[in-house]
Write a structure and sequence with these properties.
Blueprint lengths: L3 E5 L4 H9 L7 E6 L12 E5 L16 E4 L5 H4 L2 H21 L4 E5 L11 H14 L5 E6 L3 E2 L7 H10 L13 E2 H13 L4 E6 L10
Parallel strand pairs: 1-2, 1-4, 2-3, 4-5, 5-6, 6-9, 7-8
Helix pairs in contact: 1-6, 3-4
The structure holds NADP nicotinamide-adenine-dinucleotide phosphate.
């Protein structure tokens, strides 16, 4: 079992579910790199919050001396403001951070990517996700787990009308939708990440559809 876990994207839907669900017995040394303090983790003293505005990635290097890097970092094209900015956030940032972690000795990376990720996709979002997956696979991690969820379910404070409509239409009919395209709750994703951290098998893996539903922990 790896001893040190570092997470980027800590304040997001999956990041928060992961941090709120982990227990000290299983994960005694966790660092959440975050742009703003997460207030509801006060009772989890084993989670260290490393506040960083991500403008000087080198300053993050000491926090990237870790056994496992988990990335659930990402934005939307709308929030980023342009395709170029989206590429910088969803591709360049996690890639640069992953390279630094690998330089610091990290041998396992878990990436929350997206269903449809494909470096050749004609859809910009899917292409960016696919390019990131491809670049990460060339870094040399012993274990690379790429998770490709479809639409994520869970409580969000921010309004995302497209996602909301998708959930409204897809949730009641979920059982009719092929596994690969079924919405998945962030709680399930958080559990899957925990299970993958526990694994020790070397290799590069892509998890999607039914395979994202790992046996529920505890
Ligand atoms: N939403 C979906 O239905 C869906 C479906 C498939 C895949 N995905 C992908 O799954 C991943 C996790 O999704 P999620 O819904 O949990 O994400 P989320 O709630 O949107 O959270 C994104 C995280 O990334 C951080 N982040 C965004 N821009 C950043 C920047 N410029 N610098 C540093 N940190 C930044 C955010 O930090 P702040 O809180 O500081 O902004 C937050 O911690 C993302 O890559 C997303 O693209 C999402």
């Amino acid at each position: 079992m790896p001893s040190k876990i570092t997470l980027i994207g800590s304040t997001g839907l999956i990041g928060l579910h992961f941090l709120e669900s982990i227990r000290e017995d299983d994960f005694p040394d966790v660092t959440a790199i975050t742009r703003r303090k997460i207030s509801n983790l006060a009772d989890k003293h084993f989670i260290r919050q490393a506040i960083n505005d991500f403008s000087d990635l080198e300053s993050m290097r000491p926090d990237l001396k870790t056994d496992v890097l988990v990335s659930s970092l990402g934005t939307t094209i709308k929030k980023a403001g342009s395709q170029d900015e989206f590429f910088k956030i969803d591709h360049d940032l996690p890639l640069r951070i992953a390279r630094m972690a690998h330089e610091e000795g990290c041998r396992t990376m878990i990436l929350v990517s997206s269903g449809g990720a494909n470096p050749q996709s004609s859809i910009f979002y899917c292409r960016v996700k696919g390019l990131l997956e491809e670049a990460l696979s060339e870094i040399g991690f012993d274990r690379l787990h790429i998770l490709r969820p479809s639409l994520l379910l869970g409580p969000r404070t921010e309004s995302r009308p497209g996602e909301y409509l998708g959930k409204l239409l897809m949730q009641p009919l979920s059982f009719l939708i092929p596994w690969k395209y079924r919405p998945i709750h962030a709680r399930i994703m958080a559990n899957t990440i925990q299970q993958l951290i526990r694994g020790n098998e070397k290799g590069h893996y892509i998890w999607e559809g039914k395979d994202l539903y790992k046996e529920v922990d505890g």
